[in-house]
Amino acid sequence: xxxxxxxxxxxxxxxxxxxxxVTGILFLAGCQKGDEQQAKSEVTTIQLKGSxxxxxxAQAWAEAYKKVAPTVDVEVSGGGSGVGIAALVKGxxxxxxxSRNIKPQEMETAKRNTGKDTxxxxxxYDALAVYVHKDNPLNEISIDQLAAIFAEGGTVTxxxxxxxxIPGVSDDEIVRISRQSSSGTYEFFREHxxxxxxFKLGSRDMNGSKEVVELISNTKTAIGYSGMGYATPSVKMLxxxxxxxxxxxxxxxxxxxxxxxxxxxxxHLYTLGDPEGAVKQYIDWILSVxxxxxxxxxxxxxxxxxKPAN
Length: 310
What we know:
Layout: H1 2-41, E1 44-50, H2 55-68, E2 72-77, H3 81-89, E3 95-98, H4 104-114, E4 118-133, E5 140-142, H5 143-150, E6 175-179, H6 184-192, E7 204-206, H7 209-217, E8 222-227, E9 235-237, E10 239-241, H8 253-257, E11 264-272, H9 277-286, H10 289-297, E12 301-302
Parallel strand pairs: 1-2, 1-3, 5-10, 6-7, 6-8
Antiparallel strand pairs: 3-11, 4-8, 4-9, 4-11, 4-12
Helix pairs in contact: 3-4
């Protein structure tokens, strides 16, 4: 009888200990989950969308900034300057990146939709480079010659018309590589090279800057345009002459800053109104020495407003 009571008592003690242990585990798990949820709720997300010219450096900025501000996530997506600006004027993103200036009608739409004016930050400069395959003997080209190749009504369709013979090529038909119409690069080229004329039909229109250069590197008879930051050993950047007979300049940092290079352009970030909080801190960091160093490492020309990071 005594043995039975002792056994029952032992079982009761073991059950109680087990319940305490399980309760403790559940409590700790609940605390851990609560801590994770709290930490997650403390993370600030910044959404940046737009220019494919800037998408590589924008991703590099986001990755580097995570080390500076661990509680800030910067989500980067491309699609073109027009796509980013369209999202901004609807108020659905925090920052739009663009390789062109925002248009007056876009600014008006943003004001009408959100009640806020757009704020422009020039974060760097770029030379819009004209690329050919590395085996193409051509080294320079004029704006007028580019228009004759790309513009509607342009009469140049073969390399032989420009006195160019490409080694190992039997068909010298020029393959024109362009960008989709939502691209700021597309609009810049149309305005500054084609004088706002339409593009000639039949070009191969790429979704991204990188794709333009990759296709040219695999196509000996191709010519196209993209940011200077996408240059590779498989392609050649041509020197550009503003007018026939005038000196042709290469797309260098110095020529971009002095605007001696005919297709130099500025690179922008846009916000709705003056940025505040995490967005302001992020843009300030981009314009600081560390942020501008990343821009330069990605092949672009830093803005002249760089300052030490806070």
